[in-house]
Amino acid sequence: MLQRTSYVDKIDVEVLSFSSIFQIGDSCFINGLSRAMAIQREAEIFYGNEGNFSTYPVFSEPIPFQPITEPFTFRIHNPKPIIKVQTIDVIGFSSSSILHIGNSKHISLEARIKHIRQLLPERHEHEI
């Protein structure tokens, strides 16, 4: 793992919600997962069978990660392995967001959202 030291003089976070993480310090693994359904209806109707993620393929399909095929070279040179930040000011973060100050070895984040819009049937003038 990279060995850098992080210095932050001031951190101000107003809102942290819905499985979000604020971590200060090094980590080996960070795994974040967020699943949500956003159902928008013209009429306020609740059928009682909403909310089952397994009925929607978007929540179970494998994510198609594309391998990097181009050759590349890089060199790391850290004459001063220090990251210095004066102020971090966050209004808010939500839905499995992560604010992490420190070193990380492996990070994996995934968000899957199904948006559903259900509109009432269109009414024609002769029906009114």
- Summed up, the helix count is 0
Helix content: under 10%
Category from helices, strands and their pairing: mainly beta
Gross geometry? elongated
Task: Name the features.
128 residues, mainly beta, two-stranded parallel sheet, two-stranded parallel ribbon, elongated
Explain this structure to me?
The protein is mainly beta and 128 residues long. It is built from no helices and six strands. The radius of gyration is 22 Å and the shape is elongated.
What's the quick description here?
By secondary structure, the protein is mainly beta. The protein has strands spanning 5-16, 21-24, 27-41, 82-93, 98-101, 104-118.
Topology overview:
Blueprint lengths: L4 E12 L4 E4 L2 E15 L40 E12 L4 E4 L2 E15 L10
Parallel strand pairs: 1-4, 2-5, 3-6
